Amino acid sequence: MNQTLVVYGFGSFFRGAKKPGDIDLLLIHRSTDQASCLFAVECKRHFQRHLPHVEVVMLSAIEAEQNEFISRAEAIRLATIDSDSSESQVLDLARRIAASGSL
After folding, report:
1. Cβ-Cβ contacts under 8 Å for 66 (sequence gap 6 or more)
2. What total number of domains does the chain contain?
3. Within 10 A of 39 (CB to CB), how many other CB atoms are there?
4. What is the CATH number of the domain that holds 16?
């Protein structure tokens, strides 16, 4: 089964701070079933490999909605990643993020 997740950016880096300490990403995966969670963990590892100074929060769609994380963090939707080509999609997004600011 094809898995997808949505990537959001939040925190000082995405608010345009001159000297952000890190890059905060939120990965929202479909559900709390094993396949969905494992896909989120895989994507987190790809981001950690390709993007220095990254901090990754992972939530299921239900968890994100229940605690209103996106609105409270003023998160910005960056991309949707699917399991068919997740590593290349993460690498592309990591390069775009890195090119948009400096740490």
Report:
1. none
2. 1
3. 22
4. 3.40.30
